[in-house]
User: Fold this.
Amino acid sequence: MDPETPKGVADGEPTDLTVEDVTSTSVTLNWNSPKHIGTSGLAGYIVEYCKEGTQTWVAANKELTTKNVLLIKDLTEGDKLQVRVKAVHGSGGTAIATFPDTIVIKQPIVRPKIRLPRNLRDTYIRKVGQKLNLSIPVHCNAKPSISWSKDDQPLPSDRVNICNSATDTILFIRKLERKDSGKYKLVAQVDTAVDEAVIGIQVVEKPGPPQNLKLASVWGSNVTLEWQPPRDDGNAEISGYTIQKSDKKTGEWFTVMEKSRATTYTISNLVMGNHYNFRVFSENLCGLSETAALCKDTVYVPKMGRAYNPPVYKEKDFTEPPKFTQPPVDKTATVGYTTKLFCSVRGNPRPKIIWLKNKALIDENPKFRILTNEGICTLEIRKPGTFDGGVYTCKAVNALGEAAVDCKLDVKAVSVAQ
Assistant:
């Protein structure tokens, strides 16, 4: 007899019997070995189940199993079972552990998952009068309960149609209005498992015209207009204003500026002796406003009685000799890794840039690449070796003089750890 087993103690039953997994056709049981095993040892286990409404216990394994886990297969979804495990000892005796609860055979509920399309993750913008047809997949192993709300309020059933299935939900509005803008919340629920998503919908239309368009000032052949933003922006940001003028002689409107962001604009080069009218349209992502703000005042550009003699200004001399505003710095590079030297220079006329290595001219050597852009001088050294180290000089030359700057390049080999 096991020295740890007291005399007279019966062979024990399995311990800690638990249900590890349940599907629509199977149950997986798990248990631990008995605390007391006699001298005859443990032969194995038999797992049995009994369907609700019957008194018959059915063996799930035809032969004894020595494992502490067993899968009961070929069950019918909806069955309610009692299960037990018999420990069969070598002496022929048995001890039974019965699972205390009834097990219902059904597929476990997986938390529903709303697969929000990429175009709905940001605010979804539509125009007034368009239809809205959103099809959103909902993944779950059971048909979820679907609910929609807008700004935490129920959706109006007279305008919004919802169609749900086991795999998706569809939100449909035949003709959008501005009041349909808002935050739409979608909730999918199966039992206590819930997933939700919020979709921002913005319904926009063309804006109204600007307000209070007026002449701010008139001088010579120039006119400055001022106005205020429209009262109605069409539920979208105003992207700009379009300014037009009309000569009374022709009556035709000509655009002088599009997408002006400011609420003031100066129109120049008006023809002397003509009368002008002005108007301004506002614009958002739907386009120009249906109507424009019309300036109440007509502008007359008078003819000048005498010739204008413009003053003579002495031209400034912008020429200068080359001057380096930023010299190259000393640098350490690694063998085989392309490196670059930089400096900046100014001068007028534009100076010619020359690079030298150890006072020797770098010409058309394919190892070097020389670039100059807006005064930034670059020398690219492709896959340098240790022999490419040295003193590099950048020289700038124009008709007024020259300038040069130096830097030192040290090329080191990669050390390999032993």
